[in-house]
Amino acid sequence: MLRKLNVYLIKPTQYDDDGYVVRHWRGVLPSNTLACLAGLTEDVIKQKRLGEFLRVRIHVLDETVDRVPVKRICRSQREQKTKTIVCLVGVQTNQFPRAADLARVFRRAGLTVLIGGFHVSGYLALLPAIPPDIQQLMDEGVTIVKGEVEETWGDLLCDAVEGRLRPLYDFLADKPDLYQKPTPSIRKEYLRKFVAPNFGTIDCGRGCPFECTFCTIINVQGRKMRFRSAEVIATAVRNNYRAHGISFYFFTDDNFARNKNWQAIFDALARLKDEEHIPLKFMMQVDVLSWKIANFVDKARRAGCTTVFIGMESVNTENLEGAGKRQNHVAEYSQLIAAYRNAGISTHVGYIIGFPRDTAESVRRDVAFLMQDVKPDHASFFMLTPLPGSQDHLAAFRNQEWMDPDFNRYDSHHQVTRHPHLADGEWKDIYLEAWRAFYSFDNMKAVLQGSQPESYWHNFMRFIWYKNSIVTEGRHPMMCGFLRLKGRKQRRPGYPILSPW
Ligand code: B12
Ligand code: SF4
Question: Is 389 near ligand 2, meaning CB less than 6 Å away?
Answer without folding.
Answer: no
